[in-house]
């Protein structure tokens, strides 16, 4: 009898595995293909903006188009990544129109010089597409959550080429301290398939060459703890500004068209004053920081311009701007602590990301996939300290921190 029960349980596991293998292949392929096209469109928009600098003056008009598109399609209440996270945690259905809108809105934002990332948009793109797939085959509420996480993982992996970090982030970002391990097979497989598809499409994985990684020593550990604490403060500042600027716009006007016009004008003015380093995602500046060169004020200017862009109604993500802030801050200020500039830029990049997303395991895996295995324990220490000292702040209001950062106890606190 016991053997029969064990066999029946094992058969149920195998059937579930086969089900998710099938869905993962489909989600990974479809989202990988669309994510690759999205990546190419962003690259095209960035190159075109570099070739025709006058496109910057079109950003107010682009903002009006984005707001109008969301209004006409009944998506004016869309809260971006917040809505995707809430859908996974609460089992809400997502509207498929989210995918073309975030695709169109993000490309238009990058084309005209808005300061925004792309990976946050990829989470929305992949999550909405996979959620719709689940509805087409009438998955139940719990399976809907899993397939939505598959899409999130596939979208992130297709754009950034980091399948391990993408898979774990999809499971970790929703409820910090509670991992949705039931989604581990489909998330990992979807992310890997999406990376394969993006590779066939000519999208190269993002990677950096970090120079002069320091040797482990007691003094180095002290420096890394201090540096991790500084990164936690930067992440708190980043989130604080990102949450404060929408209130600034609210005090001036609640009309979405006037709001995006004002935001577009402000972005043009600041871009003319500061130069083009802070427009778009800012990957060239990140690469310069990893190479060992960064301006001391770059990190704060990037978060300000990003907040002005996204809070106005333009579309994009916050993840690459967080990388920008961490890399430039680390490069300059980490070197003041005696850390090699290139190494400090890399450590700051993932440590600030960890502080703003509350995803320590994702951050450690991201360090491995972006920078290689050398120095991984050092990056992990910076991420761990940043995670602890960043407190309960975070980018996403919909995210819930389920367990205390100070003691092994249940707290169930939101990040806002």
Rounded Rg: 21 Å
Q: Rough shape?
A: globular
- Strand portion, in percent? under 5%
Across the major sheet, the strand order is 1-2-3
* Gap from first CA to last CA: 52 Å
Mean pLDDT rating: 92
Secondary-structure-derived class? mainly alpha
Order of helices and strands: HHHHHHHEHHHHHHHHHEE
Q: Describe the biggest sheet? A: 3 strands, mixed
Helix content: over 70%
Q: Count of helical segments? A: 16
Oligomeric state: single chain
Q: Strand tally, please?
A: 3
Question: Which stretches of 5+ consecutive residues score pLDDT under 50?
Answer: none
Chart the SSEs and their pairings.
Layout: H1 2-51, H2 59-72, H3 81-90, H4 98-111, H5 119-136, H6 141-160, H7 163-172, E1 175-176, H8 184-200, H9 218-252, H10 256-274, H11 283-291, H12 298-312, H13 319-336, H14 341-357, H15 360-371, H16 376-389, E2 400-403, E3 410-414
Parallel strand pairs: 1-2
Antiparallel strand pairs: 2-3
Helix pairs in contact: 1-4, 1-5, 1-6, 1-8, 2-4, 2-10, 3-6, 4-5, 5-6, 6-7, 6-8, 7-8, 7-15, 9-12, 9-13, 9-14, 9-16, 10-12, 11-13, 11-14, 12-13, 13-14, 14-15, 14-16, 15-16
């Amino acid at each position: 009898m016991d053997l029969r029960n064990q066999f029946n349980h094992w058969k149920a596991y195998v059937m579930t595995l086969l089900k998710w293998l099938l869905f993962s292949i489909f989600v990974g392929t479809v989202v990988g293909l669309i994510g690759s096209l999205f990546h190419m469109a962003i690259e095209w928009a960035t190159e075109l903006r570099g070739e025709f600098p006058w496109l910057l003056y079109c950003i107010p008009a682009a903002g009006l188009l984005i707001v109008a598109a969301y209004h006409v399609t009944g998506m004016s209440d869309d809260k971006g990544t917040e809505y995707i996270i809430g859908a996974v945690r609460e089992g809400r259905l997502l509207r498929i129109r989210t995918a073309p809108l975030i695709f169109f809105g993000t490309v238009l934002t990058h084309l005209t010089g808005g300061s925004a990332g792309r990976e946050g948009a990829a989470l929305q793109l992949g999550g909405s597409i996979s959620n719709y797939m689940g509805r087409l085959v009438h998955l139940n509420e719990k399976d809907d959550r899993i397939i939505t996480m598959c899409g999130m993982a596939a979208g992130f992996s297709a754009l950034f080429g980091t399948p391990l970090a993408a898979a774990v982030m999809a499971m970790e970002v929703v409820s910090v301290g509670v991992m949705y391990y039931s989604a581990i097979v489909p998330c990992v497989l979807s992310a890997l398939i999406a990376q394969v598809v993006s590779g066939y499409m000519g999208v190269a994985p993002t990677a950096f060459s970090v120079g002069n990684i320091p040797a482990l020593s007691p003094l180095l550990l002290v420096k890394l703890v201090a540096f991790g604490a500084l990164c936690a403060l930067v992440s708190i500042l980043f989130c604080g500004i990102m949450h404060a600027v929408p209130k600034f716009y609210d005090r001036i006007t609640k009309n979405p068209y006037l709001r995006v016009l004002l935001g577009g004008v402000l972005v043009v003015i600041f871009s003319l004053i500061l130069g083009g380093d802070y427009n778009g995602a800012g990957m060239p500046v990140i690469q310069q920081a990893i190479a060992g060169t960064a301006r001391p004020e770059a990190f704060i200017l990037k978060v300000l311009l990003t907040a002005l862009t996204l809070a106005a109604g333009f579309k994009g993500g916050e993840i690459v701007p967080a990388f920008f802030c961490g890399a430039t801050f680390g490069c300059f200020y980490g070197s003041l602590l005696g850390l090699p500039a290139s190494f400090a830029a890399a450590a700051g990049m993932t440590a600030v990301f960890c502080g703003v997303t509350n995803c320590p395991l994702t951050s450690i895996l991201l360090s491995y996939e972006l920078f290689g295995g050398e120095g991984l324990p050092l990056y992990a220490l910076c991420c761990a300290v940043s995670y602890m000292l960043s407190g309960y702040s975070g980018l996403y209001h919909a995210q819930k921190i389920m367990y205390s950062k100070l003691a092994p106890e249940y707290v169930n606190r939101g990040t806002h």
